[in-house]
Amino acid sequence: MNKKLTLLAALALGGCAMATGSSMAQLQASSWQLQGATGDTFTLQVVDGKVAGKGGCNRYFGGITKQGDGVLTLGAMGSTRMMCIGDAMNKETEFLQKLEKVATYSINGNQLTLSDANKAALLTFNAVPAAK
Fold first, then answer.
1. C-alpha dihedral over 111, 87, 79, 37, to 10 degrees?
2. Going along 1-132, which residue ranges are E strands?
3. Which residues form the signal peptide (predicted)?
4. What pLDDT, on the 0 to 100 scale, is given for residue 52?
5. Please, which contacts does 32-39 make with residues 24 or more away whose CB atoms are closer than 8 Å?
């Protein structure tokens, strides 16, 4: 009885360990909202080798130069050129500069963390629930 319980526990824990990786499918399955941002001002979406979203007051877009499970390198970002009010332009510029430094990502539940080549976190997002 004790051996069966141990085997069952080992299988259950092993299954959980295999399911914790960050895959491109997970990344592409959601839209992402920057933690701490209000409304839909800073968003991210990855689709078909491209990244796009809102960067504060403008929409941005760019290509993915390297991708894989846990690996994500973005090219230069382009954006629309609407006038931003107050400090919004500085925040947007900082956000886009951080996106260009991304080298890796990890997804833990509904949270996406984009990190640089040294694994230092740059931006953290929450998954946006699908519209009904």
1. 20
2. 31-34, 43-47, 50-54, 59-68, 71-74, 78-79, 104-108, 111-115, 121-128
3. 1-25
4. 96
5. 32/112, 32/125, 32/126, 32/127, 32/128, 33/125, 33/126, 33/127, 33/128, 34/95, 34/123, 34/124, 34/125, 35/111, 35/124, 35/125, 35/126
Give CA–CA dist 13/99, Å, rounded: 34
Structure tokens at 32: 């992402």
Domain coordinates in residue numbering, the chain:
22-126
**78 pLDDT more than 60:** yes
What pLDDT is recorded for position 130? Answer: 64
CA dist 112 and 125 (Å) reads 5
